[in-house]
Amino acid sequence: MDVTPTAVRQSSSPAEDEIFAALASPVRREVLRLLRERGPQSVQDLASCFSMARPSFSEHLRVLREAGLVSERRDGRRRLYRLEPVPLVRVRDWLDPYERFWRDRLSALRHLLDDTDTGTGGRPHDSGSGPRTDQDEEKP
């Protein structure tokens, strides 16, 4: 039984779902990071960075490939994997409204705090709990 709300099912495409599912795994995110930083890598080079069985690692590469996040090219007997950044544009587009939301919220908070400080002449509120000096004593 599908419990996904109708609005959610209509707002995301199967390709988006595959991309987000691929990015859900820390192993796959690390593979993408390695490819981003080091450029195209052979399966052997990538797999050497992880302590897992080769079939398990190959499954991670398959998921990334099917989501369009990596491409595979044969070089003789080796298979080289390369980062495909275009699908990540969908992730960025999905995140943009949330980034704007938080930027607006933090901006509103900053303005509120600035207004509060302005109300006290720009000085922090005195709680009266600091050490007293002779000058603080009342004079008769």
Automatic annotation (TrEMBL):
Query: What Pfam family is a match, any one?
Result: HTH_20
Database matches in CDD domains: HTH_ARSR
Pinpoint the HTH arsR-type domain residues: 8-103
Q: Where are the stretches annotated Disordered? A: 114-140
Checking InterPro entries in the record gives: ArsR-like_HTH (IPR011991), HTH_ArsR_DNA-bd_dom (IPR001845), WH-like_DNA-bd_sf (IPR036388), WH_DNA-bd_sf (IPR036390)
Q: Which PANTHER family match?
A: TRANSCRIPTIONAL REGULATORY PROTEIN
What is the protein name stated in its UniProt record?
HTH arsR-type domain-containing protein
